[in-house]
Amino acid sequence: MKHLLREIPPVHELQVSDKFQQVMKKFDQPAQNITKIIQNQINAIREELIQETLSKQLFNNYSLIDIIWQRVDGQLADFAQEKITNVINATGTVLHTNLGRARLSNQAIDHIVKVARGYSNLEYNLKEGKRGSRHDIIEGLLKEATGAEAAMVVNNNAAAVYLILRALAKEKEVIVSRGQLVEIGGSFRVSSIMEESGAHLVEVGTTNKTHLYDYEQAITEDTRMILKVHTSNFKTIGFTESVETDSLVSLANQHQQLIVYEDLGSGSLFDFKSVRIGDEPVVREIINSGVDLVSFSGDKLLGGPQAGIIAGKKEWIAQLKKHQLARVLRVDKMTLAGLETTLRTYLAGGAEEHLPTIRDIIKSREIMEDQANQFVHQLNHDLLDLQIEESFSQVGGGTMPDVEVPTVLVTIISKGITAQQLANRLRQHVPPIVVRIKDDKVVVDFRTIELREMEDLVAGFLDVVTKNNVTNETT
């Protein structure tokens, strides 16, 4: 292979070829970009020839120049492809962390586009004609939706936890039950974030049982806060006991300037208990218990954009707004626009109809069954074995870990390829289709499939199966 090193063409020779002009036109890239990519690919091929790692089989059908242009074309195609794109979520997991969690309502999307397209009053008071605060845009709606005295927004709930601990409990003691020292996705641990914030962790109770007297005995003159962490991503069952929020509030009221803060993690404004789904507390219920502060996510059960929402007593929110980290962790105009419209949807009583997260979680069996029947009817193909089944979906996103919601799905066996191969090809399709695999079958769960996606879903399966059949016939 090393003898081919002498055949590597110089860059200037490739620059004057017709292929160079074709590539420029195809990918709409300037000459200097293409020249740089050519140089990179030539260097890579030279190294592979030296190391003898380049496949000899390639040269049965292609010349060295052909291989260079194939690689240049491939790199430019990869560069041109959008890195973040829509996918069809056929897993049934509504708040799929890897797939972007909550989908926004059409109304929220329209508002975001409108605000992004032009200038806005992000930090301008139109009534008074002077500088305003972005906190004011959303605070009124949050107060009305949660019943809190005051509220603010940062870029996610992890940021909210950090800001609260740093601003209000730095170099002070924070009491936490051992059963609530959780770790969520991305190795985010309560103990670690507390250490970073400068607050001093005081653990009380045991993994499965913590009593009110555990908190009471741990309070010292250095104690600043009692932190209750809602275990939204796991459940401890059996011989367990924890202290209710209102009891912690009563204990804190016996001590001056002792803050009770509850990190709800997910946080819900919709009462899922009313439709017999889980036992997730509603934010207003926690506020009404008398806590000083609560924090929760915007892109989980709330069904809005990524954000960390802090609500509670005006005294503490005011201190948080003035802290230097509030500027570091602030959200942009598009997040505020999406969150504003999402909150207005709740206040107008339209969450079940307009918010995809709520709508998908409470989606009726009848709707999913109709979609499954339509899918099977339209995907009638000799190479596919399709079966409609009843099963269960997960809410996902670190919420309601013990809740399984009844669903309707279709299991698929494709002749000639394994379930994993079919899933891989569906994932690489345009648009990508992400499925589950169970018992060596591909599973399509219709809880997370919208009616507008049905045509693309069917077309994707037919395209993948047809291409596989052609491949089999020619091999």
UniProtKB/TrEMBL annotation:
InterPro entries: PyrdxlP-dep_Trfase, PyrdxlP-dep_Trfase_major, SelA-like, SelA_trans
Gene3D superfamilies listed in its UniProt record: 3.90.1150.180, Type I PLP-dependent aspartate aminotransferase-like (Major domain)
EC number: 2.9.1.1
GO cellular component terms given for this protein: cytoplasm
Primary subcellular site in the record, as a coarse category: cytoplasm
EC main group: transferase
Gene Ontology terms, MF aspect: L-seryl-tRNA(Sec) selenium transferase activity
Needed co-factor(s): pyridoxal 5'-phosphate
Pfam families: SelA
Modified residues (N6-(pyridoxal phosphate)lysine): 300
Top-level taxon: Bacteria
Pathway linked to the protein: Aminoacyl-tRNA biosynthesis; selenocysteinyl-tRNA(Sec) biosynthesis; selenocysteinyl-tRNA(Sec) from L-seryl-tRNA(Sec) (bacterial route): step 1/1
Subcellular location: Cytoplasm
GO biological process: conversion of seryl-tRNAsec to selenocys-tRNAsec; selenocysteine incorporation
Catalysed conversion reaction: L-seryl-tRNA(Sec) + selenophosphate + H(+) = L-selenocysteinyl-tRNA(Sec) + phosphate
Keywords: Cytoplasm, Protein biosynthesis, Pyridoxal phosphate, Selenium, Transferase
Stated role: Converts seryl-tRNA(Sec) to selenocysteinyl-tRNA(Sec) required for selenoprotein biosynthesis.
Family: Belongs to the SelA family.
Name of the protein in question: L-seryl-tRNA(Sec) selenium transferase
